[in-house]
Amino acid sequence: MRDLDKALADIIAIRSQLAAGTAFRGYGPATMAATAAVALTTALIQQFVLPDPTAEPLIFLLGWAAAACVSLSMIWIEMRARSRRHHSGLADAMIHQAVEQFLPAGIAGVLLAVLLWKFAPEALWMLPGLWQILMSLGVFASVRSLPRTVALAGAFYFLAGFAVLLLGSVTHLLSPWTMGLPFAAGQALMAGILYFATGDSDVED
Fold this sequence. Notes:
This protein is an all-alpha fold. It contains seven helices and no strands. The longest helix has 31 residues, at 57-87.
């Protein structure tokens, strides 16, 4: 039994090493472009139904939480399908690695939103910029298993986050466009980078 356990552990370790050295192809350009459309649509909806987001921050946050859930669901479904096709036996290990790389930034974003809403609502104007900076850190953490040019999207989110913080420091107001425009542009950039790096339009998926 000890030999069997050791052999299984060795197989798992080998699979993990193979996954770490393999370029991840689970993210599809078309799906990334669709998440850009989700960001723009959310901003447009909030522009019309939420005249003063600063006065109703919970509705603002819930709207973007819903947009994030829709986008993550699309990415997750696509990631599983593409990983099964491109990575076959390594699919589960590759998906686990991709989630592991992005998870800290995602958890930090959720906890930061709850913290500011509950204990420092006067600082909620900072949240869009902070979310974009966290997004950049998640992208940078994923660069080792994605095309190197993905770092350009990380740099965009990093600069956009600080630009949004700078603009918000003047008014201290929440705006759907400080979320919608940077995320739409960033996800569209990701879609373009993935398409030109892999040559995969993703439309057949």
